[in-house]
């Protein structure tokens, strides 16, 4: 696909990307993959490989390390990433509630904005696996867009209506496993808006923030409510129900149509072949996973 001048310039300035470097890196990446000792079958198209090249700004040793860790983590935690037809049906059921979806427009920096409304997640019906699977498939879908690979993603989480039942959905094991996945995440995650954060969650946030770098701390913003959020993003981008231009249903349908076009790429994960007998010391202890937030690399 052809990128606009805006994204070509952004890739050049922020990722050190030009056409020559991109083509050479893709060729090097494929040569490395074809000789890989335990990853035997996997996608090698440009869009997929560029997800990793752009995440690590073409530093090839980091690219290869992230690629291995990400692919192994997705196989290890197949409960979240091995997308069966029944999983997609369940995810779409949750999607239709409006729990999570990307806004239709990008912001002025070209970022995709993911909007999460916790009150739409019924903790008596949906599980933590449902929520994590849907978040994973939505994020993976957006990374099929080269513009998103370059400009990144910001996330809005509206905590209005959040209850203790929502927090109890996620077990300690879920948190540990999710931290391990987060450590190996691909993509440029630029900002997190935590709106209407309840008092009982502020303490948990303070604990989590104590483990983060100053750079990452600055990316967490705490608007008091959805009106306050409008001081940070263009209000017209929000659903019409919050003062924006398009109704929520249109935002959701726009992504739903796009998702249908990229779903075959996401289903490829089931066809990947890994020779586990040749994977060196692939074990993640609980202490390693709990410390994952300290190890996060961000651009």
UniProtKB/TrEMBL annotation:
SUPFAM superfamilies: CRAL/TRIO domain, CRAL/TRIO N-terminal domain
UniProt superkingdom: Eukaryota
GO CC, any one term: membrane
Pfam families assigned to the protein according to its UniProt record, in alphabetical order: CRAL_TRIO (PF00650)
CDD domains: SEC14
Domain CRAL-TRIO: 88-250
MF term (GO), any: phosphatidylinositol bisphosphate binding
Protein name as catalogued: CLUMA_CG007368, isoform A
């Amino acid at each position: 696909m052809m990128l606009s001048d805006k994204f070509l310039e952004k890739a050049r300035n922020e990722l050190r990307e030009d056409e020559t470097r991109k083509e050479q890196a893709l060729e090097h990446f494929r040569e490395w993959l074809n000789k890989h000792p335990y990853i035997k079958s996997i996608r090698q198209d440009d869009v997929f490989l560029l997800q990793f090249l752009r995440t690590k700004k073409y530093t090839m040793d980091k690219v290869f390390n992230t690629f291995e860790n990400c692919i192994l983590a997705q196989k290890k935690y197949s409960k979240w990433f091995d997308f069966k037809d029944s999983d997609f049906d369940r995810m779409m059921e949750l999607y239709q509630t409006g729990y999570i979806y990307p806004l239709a427009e990008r912001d002025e920096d070209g970022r995709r904005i993911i909007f999460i409304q916790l009150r739409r997640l019924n903790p008596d019906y949906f599980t933590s696996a449902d929520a994590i699977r849907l978040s994973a498939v939505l994020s993976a879908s957006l990374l099929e867009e080269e513009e998103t690979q370059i400009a990144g993603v910001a996330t809005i989480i509206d905590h209005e209506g959040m209850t203790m039942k929502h927090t109890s959905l996620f077990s300690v094991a879920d948190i540990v496993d999710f931290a391990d996945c987060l450590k190996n995440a691909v993509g440029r995650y630029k900002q997190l808006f935590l709106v209407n954060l309840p008092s009982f969650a502020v303490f948990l946030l303070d604990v989590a923030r104590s483990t983060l770098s100053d750079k990452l701390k600055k990316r967490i913003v705490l608007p008091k409510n959805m009106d306050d959020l409008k001081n940070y993003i263009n209000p017209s981008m929000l659903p019409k129900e919050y003062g924006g231009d398009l109704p929520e249903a249109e935002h959701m349908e726009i992504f739903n149509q796009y998702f249908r076009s990229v779903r075959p790429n996401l289903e490829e994960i089931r066809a990947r072949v890994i020779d586990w007998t040749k994977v060196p010391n692939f074990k993640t202890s609980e202490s390693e996973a709990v410390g994952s937030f300290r190890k996060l690399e961000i651009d």
